[in-house]
Amino acid sequence: MDNLEVAKILNQIADLMEIKGESKFKVGAYRRATRTIEELPENINDVYLKDKLEEIPGVGESIALDIKELITKGSCLRLSKLKEKIPGKLSELMEIEGLGPKKVAFLFKKFHVTAIKQLEKLIKSHKLKELFGWGPKSEQNILEGIKLYRRFRERFLLGKIYPYAQALQEKLRKSPLVEKVEICGSFRRRKETIGDLDILVTSKQPKRLVDFFVSLPEIQRVNAKGPTKVNVLLKYGAQHQSGVETDLRVVRPESFGAALHYFTGSKTHNIEIRRRGIEKGLRINEYGVFKVSPSKKRLTRVGGAKEEEIFKAVGLPWIPPEIRENEGEIEAALENRLPKLIEKRDIKGDLHLHSDWSDGEDSILDLALSAQKRKYQYIALTDHASPIGIINGLNAHRVLKQILAIKEINKKLRGFQILTGTEVDINKDGSLFLPDKILEKLDIVVAGIHSSFHLSCDQMTKRIVKAMKNFHVDIIAHPTGRLINKREPYEIDESALIKEAKRTGTILEINAAPQRLDLTGPYIRLAKEYGVRMAISTDAHSTNQLDYMVFGVDTARRGWAEKNDIVNTLPFEELKGLLKRG
DNA sequence: GCCGTTTTCGGCCCGACTGTTTTCAGTCG
Ligand SMILES: Nc1nc2c(ncn2[C@H]2C[C@H](O)[C@@H](COP(=O)(O)OP(=O)(O)OP(=O)(O)O)O2)c(=O)[nH]1
Ligand SMILES: [Mg+2]
Ligand SMILES: [Mg+2]
Ligand SMILES: [Zn+2]
Fold first, then answer.
1. Closest residue, CA to C1' of B15
2. Distance, CA A359 to ligand 4 centroid (Å)?
3. Angle between helices A494-504 and A521-530 (to 10 degrees)
4. Which helix (H) or strand (E) holds A300?
5. Which three-class secondary structure state does DSSP give residue A306?
6. What's the CA A301/C1' B12 distance, rounded, in angstroms?
7. What nucleotide is nearest A105 when CA is compared to C1'?
């Protein structure tokens, strides 16, 4: 059972406990543990074997026991006991917007509803609205919730929604009612996927602004509307067949900093900051920081216009949004050991690109010129070397031809270098698609898996480790192989991979393509702790995809990466010195 | 259920909007 499977079960335990009516703090404890384990880079089985489960924040004696049972037996007593009283399927019903634990519990107790179909039937019989506490609107809202649930709403790729969000921000800025507009939430934290857009606006006329917003042509539906907060579905996608859930929050200018902090999150980060506020006799909310009088009756405002003031109030320096996940950033800030995160302007080149020699769209020269426009000093041309026909992979002969072609192009360039390279397939047995005597002629060798994705964890790990041991392999491309919303990562021992990368001096890639972002935050952080170097590469298949770099930098920042951790911040000569021979 | 340079017991973030309520619980951010 892997981390995500364990997390999923802990979350289901939380759901069922909530439906059962357990203390919300107990439920909260399970949700906290769920979240931590979802983001844990170490394999939970290893943590168990080392007897260190209780060292995971939020995991104590009870949850550690649950995890132990899950790992050793595939099931746990607590869940089985819960399921005797509460059907496991009820946790799915809770995913419908507007249905929480209390309503689900009621529907089950009174009508034995356990599935969506049953619920629909019940509503259409209109038995519900006769009951106290339920009316026609309740019925209508549940039906709407079911419809939305069925539209199968995946999370959006950050890279895909980015231009849409920016255009919307610009549009709002133009309104005379608006002072500041920031897109907050997971978007500002630069998570690789975004559940919804959270837009913060300051205005001296909040009510008028809310009315203006819901009258925009982009609005598909208004779900909720009050004087400070609106929830809508925006039109999105071709023919607007899709929609983006959007929360708009309006505050007065003096609350901008506090609201920015609140709305940026993450939720767990907010809770921890507020808790520290309580210890200092402060109340922190989206309107500001307030001193609580000894009688606890009066609040005196002590800050909130600037985001910094929130941190300052609890004795901290400003923390970059990308690492606000309550994963140790608050402790680090307190001890003045926040990382100096890498920035876009630190990037001096791109080490994973495809030209029209393989499956890219543009010529080598165009890629070089585009990179030069972006103030880079170098690129590495890494066309596929692969037997897969569809990607038009290069064989040994064409690789040699390309080396000569690049030599010619390099002569035409000033202050810029193209490194010769390849993205060579790692075969099923860990050998490479090109022989060593070809690899040694290249400046840089990127190796990646593009076939046989379904090996056992052991086989897959050995496969990549073998590739790393090859003296010519400099970089492992997209190390976990995931395609967001499409393909799960390979079964692989990431910790072992990271340790081996350190041992062999192999660079791990942070692939910046929006559907990959691989490595992702938690693994980047682990790699950094081991002293493994990484490369942020776009894997661009056209010149405009060079712009993916920013998403790679964002992801690196989420992994606490600093300039020194990333090799393509180095000037050309230093980078060359770092690469393995050939 | 978890946790602790004030605690091993007693807290646990704080607020907005909705529907059906005559005063607020439920759900969500
Ligand atoms: N203090 C506090 N803040 C919250 C809570 N729930 C949400 N927030 C804040 C922090 C979140 O980042 C922000 C936006 O909420 P969302 O539900 O949209 O979450 P977020 O954008 O982080 O993730 P998402 O990608 O939308 O799933 O609101 C909460 O329970 N308490
Ligand atoms: Mg959000
Ligand atoms: Mg939201
Ligand atoms: Zn590639």
1. A285
2. 9
3. 40
4. strand A299-303
5. coil
6. 24
7. B26
CB A210 within 8 A of CB A235: no
Backbone angles phi, psi at A403, to 5 degrees: -60, -45
Strand partners, A231: A224, A247
CA A37 to C1' B5 (Å) is 28
Pairing of strands A534-537, A507-511: parallel
> Which residues line ligand 1 at a C-beta cut-off of 6 Å?
A 185-186, 191, 194-196, 198, 262-263, 265-267, 270
For the segment A24-76, what is each residue's pLDDT rounded down to a tens digit? 999 999 999 999 999 999 999 999 999 999 999 999 999 999 999 999 999 99
Q: Residue A371 pLDDT more than 80?
A: yes
Q: What string of H, E and C letters represents the secondary structure of A370-382?
A: HHHHCCCCEEEEC
- Shortest CA distance to A575 belongs to which of A345, A374, A349? A349
Mean pLDDT of A388-417: 93
Nucleic strand B within 7 A of Cβ A152: no
- Give the global pTM: 0.95
CA torsion angle for A482, A483, A488, A492 (degrees, to 10)? -10
For the stretch A70-106, pLDDT in tens is: 999 999 999 999 999 999 999 999 999 999 999 999 9
Distance A425 CA to B14 C1' (A): 53
For ligand 1, the distance from its centroid to the CA atom of residue A193, given in whole angstroms, is 14
Spatial contact of A489 and A481, defined as CB atoms under 8 Å apart: yes
Distance (angstroms) between ligand 4 centre and the Cα of A450 equals 9
Query: Which pairs from A411-414 meet CB under 8 Å and 24+ separation?
Result: A412/A365, A413/A368, A413/A372
Write the CA distances from A445 to A43, A419, A473, integer angstroms.
Answer: 29, 10, 5
- The amino acid sitting at A322 is E
Nucleotide nearest to A28 (CA to C1'): B1
Structural domains in chain A, CATH included, are 3-152 (1.10.150.110), 156-250 (3.30.460.10), 256-334 (3.30.210.10), 344-578 (3.20.20.140)
Q: Please state, in angstroms and rounded to a whole number, the distance separating the CA atoms of residues A516 and A532.
A: 20
Cβ of A226 less than 7 A from strand B: yes
CA of A83 to the centre of ligand 2 (A): 32
The Cα–Cα gap between A378 and A383 comes to: 16
Return the nearest residue to B21, CA–C1': A133
Q: Is residue A232 within a helix (H) or strand (E), and if so which, with residue range?
A: strand A229-236
Which nucleotide is at minimal CA–C1' distance from A290?
B14
Tell me how far apart the alpha carbons of residues A333 and A512 are, in angstroms, rounded to a whole number: 28
Separation in Å: B24 C1' and A544 CA? 55
Residues A90 and A104: their CA atoms lie apart, in Å, by 7
